[in-house]
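Hello, quick one for you while I still have it in my head. A protein chain has come my way and I'm curious about its shape. Can you walk me through what the tokens say about the fold? No rush at all, and the record is pasted right below.
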Amino acid sequence: MSAQKRRHTTTPRWRTASRVFGLIGLIIGLTVGILAPAARADDIAEQDPEGALELAQRYAPIMMLKAQEAECDQDGEPYGPTSIDIVLDNPEVVLRQVGPGNPVIMNAPGASDLFELGQGFFLDFPGGALQPGCIYETDYRKYSRDRPTTVYAHVVKQDGHPDQLALQYWFYWYYNDWNNKHESDWEGIQLLFDASTIEEALASEPVSVGYAQHEGGERADWDSSKLERDGSHPLVYSSAGSHASYFGSALYLGRSGSEGFGCDNTDGPSNRLEPEVVVLPDSVADADSPLAWLEYAGRWGERQNGPFNGPTGPAAKGRWLEPIDWHEELRASSVVVPSGDSQATAVISAFCGVVEWGSGVLISFTTSPVTLLITFGLLVALAGWATRRTTWEPVAPLPLVQRRSVGQILRLAGTGHRWTTRAMLRFGLVYLPAAAVVAVVGALLSIAPLLGDLVGVAGRASGTSLVLALFAGSIPHLVALVLVNAMMAAHLGRADGDEPLPVGAAAKLAWSERRTLGSALLRASVIVIVLFATIIGIPWGIRQVVRYQFVAQVVVLEGLDAKASLARSSELIRGRWLHTAVVLAIVNGLVLVSATVVGVILLVLVSQLPLWLFSVLVTLVSALVVPIGAVALTLLYGDARAEKQGAEPPTAQIPTLSSGSR
């Protein structure tokens, strides 16, 4: 044995013990060897190895991996299915035994060294699984250089199912860079045949295919439109980082163990890989076999707690010898997050981010609890400092045009008066038509794949569905938002003394200005979109977004036309840009967080809720919280007008930009 593959100092004791009992072991081993076959009696791959290889090569999957723009790019997929040989006999990989200090048993373990080792052992790669940096990607590129993309095939029949045959493909990935980070990852798919032999399978086609996804998976009929194929080769879209296998290019939502908790992304562009195939038997009896690693029951990666632990190998999985049972438990579909900038999509994106953030916090607490606690303490102190920078004394919402501190605006928006609360609830009803649009369009999009199956065309997102999703999301919500702001402005700004304008009259007044409001909204949108489209104009686009915030209030309360209302809104915010931006960020942030928290709770608790219905419910939640932002924005408008008229603020405000920084 080479110096790189020397065993730990405790290893000679193992050898001494083995020599003491060697003769007894030899006798027992010979007896067992005579009485027991080398493989399962129904190991059909062993009975027909040429047929098994032909079958495996005929249906070998084509891997579609999310393209990586640059090395160590977190949005793409840096790894690919590869041969397990990249970690076997590797001088930078060590074998450890579970115990105090997890001692090193040997360096560069090979297949024969892992043969029949139990669960108390694990491989350890260079780097830290919880803080990967770029080392795993760099090492993978180094180890896999000049090696072909490889998948492992396993042809198996389950006891009790004589007329069904499963063709499994197992994918080995060097590192799993998802919410549950860990060294090594075993994923795969399987095809089912109504056949009792490999010969019968070669003379027919699969009837069904199942794609593994986390603890569960998804199935499809072989002739389903959602299954993309190149001839007899199924296309497998591997989720970036988690390597879960999907039928298409999209963003997928997972809210359970079988789906995975978080979001899987297979969205394109994708790199296409056509792997070589290595056929595996049901079991291996010879330690000198190059496939002896199949009998290793330990972990294929660094030992960690819970989801961060290295995985076990294929033969340790239940579906290895019970493929039919596993296939029957697969889902008929996965939840696809629709295209379009809808509020529901924003909530789902927030859910994905929260899960990822929570995983990061757990990792940080595991690796550096003191740093995490100090950071949390600093954030609390910063929040306390910001709170003390303003006054929270009660102030009346009327008259509208008067100076108010940030704290007073936030307090009024959050608590309000009895009539303000009623108005907010009624104005929020404007979102009901938006919810209806979301329901209709969302339902159409949700049944598109089914319709595609019925007519024999792919039911995937097209240009039409993208436009529908956008219409169901952004446009109705934006129109509703402008109308709510206009109605709230009329309600508070057209008050008669201490009494606000009645809700009905306020709604009627806002509706009478609908053409001007629409024209102003269109003008502002075009200006901002053009600025953002130029890339270099993005800072000016952000500037204009803030400067146009009072357009609805100006149109309703000052009677200006579309063009003049944009100029007037900019004039009111001139010299107060930073102040306005900070208040808007706080208010809209609180409103968004409130709606998102409710939406995320709904998303998690009601996991079987159709996505289109979830979109409707999120829209209705918006009807309750968006008017809070309208109150704050209208009060901020009143504060700006009062300042322009020379009124003094009640207390020191959040610092504003000087005139030269507008």
